[in-house]
Design a protein that fits this description.
- By secondary structure, this protein is mainly α.
- It has one domain (38-424).
- Helices cover 79% and strands 0% of the residues.
- It is built from 21 helices and no strands.
- It has helices spanning 2-14, 19-34, 39-49, 57-70, 73-85, 91-104, 110-127, 132-143, 153-162, 166-172, 174-194, 206-232, 237-255, 261-294, 297-308, 312-329, 332-349, 354-367, 376-385, 389-412, 415-424.
- Helix 7 (110-127) packs antiparallel against helix 8 (132-143), helix 10 packs across helix 21 and helix 16 packs antiparallel against helix 17 (332-349).
- The longest helix is centred in the middle third of the chain and has 34 residues, at 261-294.
Length: 425
């Protein structure tokens, strides 16, 4: 009977209903037809879905990233990275990767990173002779780094619903994030050489360097403050998120003088609207969590896998395929919140480290942001770069292949995820 709930969920999404409504309606209808619950229980499950102090960190991190963009700090980071690597053949593609790493240490959101970085970089890339599709592709794929290097909003979401250490998952994303940057660096180097992009003379001098350093040093400290707070436990995750906003506000208003009250209010409103779309999904997931728990779906799935005699490696392979397909057709948040709690107990019983499994699932679903048909980052780039969606999808396949290769690597070499958390914690 529970399969009918998931069938109804996908049917409603296919008919064009919003994800949160489809989840809430399918779960409620299932419980009502089951007949042993009251409407009061359904309401209580909606409340329990968002009854977590840690959830407050999500809008805080989103606001921090949006403030970085609206106050012009992203532009300063771009200029700083351009000083070092902008003169090379694929210089601005390298800049996109480097800035994505810095932005990843603040917002934890691929969509936020892609929007702010691309809006700054794309006009410059076009001016220096890069194809629109090339620029859009690297700005899309490099944004995937955002939710992998800490802080990560998807890892935060998974930690809240599963009880896995959020700090360990954060640190577990460091090496995979750097591996993504490395393989994208190699890819764009090859593509730039093949397409004959010329190197560009970028003015470089010690006075210019010191000027750029003076202008960006405070912005560069922001991710260090956030990450060190998480690693060393000086403050809680919510406090780290709040302090990052305070820090960015202080340097934006009193140092850079690039943020006025009107722009601040607009940024807060935009963040509130975007955050509410996430929080309402958490609420309706409360219903799904109750159903999964009461139906003992995790144990049923484990019993099924035992009858199939699946090994740990085969389970990981099937998980990759499943989440890749789900990421192509659904938003990452509901997929994580619905299916991860079901599959995690099975993974643990098969001997998979929970931190390792959490990181690879997040990475897996973030690849869905750059895959058709619903890749959110692709649609952002079509608006910014003014490039046809079909043209961009064709350009993205080498980038998707590169990302999947890193995913396979960290899946079957778990030490790439678990070594650093084990060392620091």
């Amino acid at each position: 009977m529970i399969l009918s709930m998931f069938f109804l969920l996908f049917l409603m999404i296919g008919l064009g209903f919003s994800i949160w409504f489809s989840m809430g309606a399918s779960g409620t209808i299932y419980l009502l037809f089951r007949g042993d619950v009251s409407l009061r229980l359904i309401v209580s499950q909606l409340v329990s879905g968002v009854n977590s102090d840690t959830l407050v960190a999500i809008p805080f991190f989103i606001l921090a990233g949006n403030l970085m963009s609206s106050s012009g700090i992203t532009k300063k980071l771009t200029d700083f990275a351009d000083f070092f690597v902008g003169r090379f053949r694929a210089g601005l593609a390298y800049v996109s990767i480097v800035v994505s790493i810095f932005m990843a240490g603040i917002s934890g959101s691929a969509v936020s990173d892609a929007s702010s970085t691309s809006a700054v970089l794309h006009p410059i890339m076009k001016q220096r002779g890069y194809d629109d599709k090339f620029a859009a592709a690297i700005n899309s794929s490099s944004a995937v780094i955002g939710p992998i290097i800490p802080p990560s909003i998807p890892m935060l979401q998974i930690g809240i619903i599963s009880g896995i250490s959020i700090g360990r998952m954060f640190i577990g994303g460091f090496i995979p994030g750097l591996l993504i940057a490395a393989i994208l660096w190699i890819l764009v180097t090859y593509q730039a050489k093949k397409r004959g992009y010329a190197s560009v003379e970028v003015e470089r001098s010690w006075p210019q360097f010191w000027g750029l350093l003076k202008d960006t040093i405070l912005a560069l400290l922001a991710p260090i403050i956030i990450i060190s707070g998480v690693v060393f436990g000086f403050v809680t995750l919510v406090e780290v998120a709040a302090l990052s906003i305070l820090y960015i506000l202080l340097i934006s208003v009193f140092v850079y003088r690039s943020l006025d009250f009107k722009l601040f209010i607009k940024t807060v409103i935009d963040t509130a609207v975007f955050s509410s779309s996430i929080m309402i999904i958490f609420a309706v997931v409360g219903i799904y969590q109750y159903i999964v728990s009461s139906e003992q779906l995790g144990q049923q799935l484990f019993d099924l896998i035992q009858t199939m005699n699946l090994s740990k490696n085969m389970f990981l392979f099937l998980s990759l395929i499943f989440f890749l397909l789900m990421g192509c057709i659904l938003d990452a948040v509901p997929v994580m919140l619905i299916f991860f709690p079901v599959l995690l107990p099975v993974a643990i019983q098969l001997g998979v480290d929970p931190v390792h499994y959490g990181v690879i699932v997040v990475f897996n679903l973030m690849i869905g942001l750059v895959t058709p048909p619903v890749g959110a980052l692709l649609f952002i780039q079509t608006k910014i770069a003014k490039v046809n969606i079909n043209t961009l999808i064709k350009e993205m396949w080498p980038h998707i292949t590169a990302l999947v290769s890193v995913l396979v690597l960290i899946t079957y070499v778990p030490q790439l995820v678990t070594w650093l958390p084990g060392l620091l914690f």
